[in-house]
């Protein structure tokens, strides 16, 4: 847009030709743009970026010893309007002069501060030196609109005088002694480590030899076993085959025995048991029939003898009638004779009954006239 100007982020735009706030001779614009009317207004830019100044100065200490001191200062224009205004009025046309003037200011303060210190203090308290220089220059730098961010003392030497080296000699000697001791300890440790390494190498070699010997022995043993493994394995296999064949033959014999038992022995035992049962049954039947027949024939025999008893008594009486018998007591005597005849008949009956008891049916039946069928 015509007449509209915008400063860079690290710049301040100074607009002159119009009214400004306060006693400032121009208007300060940062962080945004503004209209600049051509011919009536003029815009200029002041850097707000970080700048650097170097100092290389010969300084005399409190002891009168000259030291060469090198330092670096980091500074910039302050961010507030007053600092920008002060810096612009001094450096706007020649902004490079800010580094030159800053170096001169710090060189003066550096000489002043070092002149109040000894070499030992400067060497040992370098940070204290930097802090005192910063504090001494802060007010002066602020008046010209500059602010210091850092001061770094880069080097300090006595220009070959040897004072600093002499000052550091005891420390160097102690350091050298410690270094020598450390080196000796390191050498000793290295030698011990070397000896330990050699011992381990020798032990490793010995162990390796032992392992190799053991390995060779195991290999030889394995080869010997492998050489014997073929015949042994074949013999073992044949023995196992024979054992299996024997076991199969035994199983086959057991199976055949079971088949014979099932096919021959069991049927024979069953038939023998059947015949025995039938024989026992027939014998029991014959016994029962014999007992029944004997009982039937005995009854029939007793009946027949009883039926024949009168005839027996009568024949006995007939034999008495032809005999010469005298009866003394009359009728009583005759009764006694009759009773005797009867008793004699009964005795004959018992004799016949007991005498024929041991004969079977076929022997008794023809004698006593009993039919064979028991009728």
Your description of this structure?
It is a single chain. The protein has 375 residues and is of the alpha+beta class. Among the domains are: 1-47; 50-161, Tetrahydropterin Synthase, Chain A, CATH 3.30.479.30. Helices cover 66% and strands 14% of the residues. The protein contains seven helices and eight strands. The chain has helices spanning 81-91, 97-114, 119-124, 126-143, 163-321, 330-355, 361-368; strands spanning 4-5, 11-16, 27-29, 34-35, 42-47, 51-60, 66-77, 146-157. The strands form three sheets. The chain has a three-stranded antiparallel beta sheet, with helices on one face. A three-stranded antiparallel beta sheet has the order 6-7-8. A hairpin with a 5-residue loop joins strand 6 (51-60) and strand 7 (66-77). The chain starts with a strand and ends in a 7-residue tail after the last helix. Its main location: membrane. Keywords: Coiled coil, Membrane.
Helices, strands, pairings?
Blueprint: E1 4-5, E2 11-16, E3 27-29, E4 34-35, E5 42-47, E6 51-60, E7 66-77, H1 81-91, H2 97-114, H3 119-124, H4 126-143, E8 146-157, H5 163-321, H6 330-355, H7 361-368
Antiparallel strand pairs: 1-4, 2-3, 2-5, 6-7, 7-8
Query: From the coordinates shown, what is the CATH architecture of the domain at 50-161?
Result: 2-Layer Sandwich
* Helix and strand sequence: EEEEEEEHHHHEHHH
Strand content: 5-15%
Count of individual helical segments: 7
Helix/strand-derived category reads alpha+beta
Given as residue ranges, the uncertain stretches (5+ residues, pLDDT < 50) are 358-375
Can you tell me the CATH topology of the domain at 50-161? Answer: Tetrahydropterin Synthase, Chain A
Shape field: elongated
* CATH homologous superfamily assignment of the domain at 50-161: Band 7 domain
Tally of extended strands? 8
Helix content: 55-70%
* Main sheet record: 3 strands, antiparallel
N- to C-terminal distance: 171 Å
Query: Mean pLDDT, nearest integer?
Result: 80
């Amino acid at each position: 847009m015509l007449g509209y100007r915008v400063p860079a982020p690290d710049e301040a735009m100074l607009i002159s030709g119009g009214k400004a706030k306060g006693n400032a001779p121009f208007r300060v614009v940062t962080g945004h743009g503004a209209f600049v009317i051509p011919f009536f207004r003029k815009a200029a830019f002041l850097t707000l970026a970080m700048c650097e100044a170097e100092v290389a100065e010969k300084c005399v200490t409190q002891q009168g010893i000259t030291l060469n001191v090198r330092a670096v200062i980091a500074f910039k224009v302050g961010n507030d309007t007053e600092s920008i205004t002060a810096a612009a009025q001094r450096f706007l046309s020649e902004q490079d002069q800010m580094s030159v003037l800053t170096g001169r200011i710090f060189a003066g303060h550096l000489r002043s501060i070092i002149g109040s210190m000894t070499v030992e203090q400067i060497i040992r308290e370098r940070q204290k030196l930097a802090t005192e220089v910063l504090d001494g220059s802060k007010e002066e730098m602020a008046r010209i609109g500059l602010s210091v961010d850092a001061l770094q003392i880069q080097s300090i030497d006595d220009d070959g005088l040897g004072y600093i080296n002499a000052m550091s000699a005891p420390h160097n000697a102690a350091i050298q002694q410690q270094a020598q001791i450390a080196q000796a300890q390191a050498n000793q440790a290295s030698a011990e480590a070397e000896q330990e390494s050699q011992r381990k190498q020798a032990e490793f070699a010995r162990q390796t030899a032992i392992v190799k010997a053991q390995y060779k022995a195991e290999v030889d043993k394995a080869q010997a076993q492998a050489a014997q493994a073929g015949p042994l394995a074949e013999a073992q296999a044949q023995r196992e085959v024979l054992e299996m064949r024997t076991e199969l033959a035994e199983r086959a014999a057991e199976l055949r025995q079971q088949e014979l038992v099932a096919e021959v022995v069991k049927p024979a035992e069953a038939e023998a048991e059947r015949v025995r049962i039938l024989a026992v049954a027939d014998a029991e039947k014959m016994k029962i029939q014999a007992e029944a027949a004997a009982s039937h024939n005995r009854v029939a025999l007793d009946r027949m003898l009883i039926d024949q008893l009168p005839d027996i008594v009568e024949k006995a009486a007939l034999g008495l009638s032809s005999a010469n018998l005298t009866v003394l007591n009359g009728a009583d005597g005759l009764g006694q004779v009759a009773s005797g005849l009867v008793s004699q008949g009964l005795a004959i009956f018992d004799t016949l009954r007991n005498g024929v008891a041991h004969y079977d049916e076929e022997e008794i039946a023809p004698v006593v006239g009993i039919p064979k069928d028991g009728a």
